[in-house]
Amino acid sequence: xFDTSALMQGVFFTEFDWHELHPSLKASAVRLVVLSLVTxxxxxxxxxxxxxxxxxARKVLTELDSCRLxxxxxxxxxxxxxxxxxxxxPRSEKHxxxx
Length: 99
Known about the structure:
Layout: H1 4-8, E1 30-32, H2 36-48, H3 51-66, E2 86-88, E3 95-97
Antiparallel strand pairs: 1-2, 2-3
C-alpha cells in the first residue's frame, strides 16, 4: 500500500521492478493499492505544490488513471476503503485492472 510520499519521491512506481521484492512475486501479478486519501493528497499537491511537486503529482495521477485506479472508484471523502489496484504482470509492459 502506498502513501503519498512514496509516489512523490524516488523511482516512479511504474518503473520499479516489484517482482524483485520477494521470490514469491516472480511469476505472479503484483497488486498495488492506493487509498483514496492518497489520491486526494496528490490532487491538492498538483494545485498548491512547487513546480516540481505539481508536475510529479500530475504525472502520478495520470498514470494511476491510465491503470484505471481512479476510474469507477469511490470519490473523495468516500469511506469505501481501498480503491481497485493496478496489476503489474511479469514480462509484460501492460497494466490491467482488478476489482
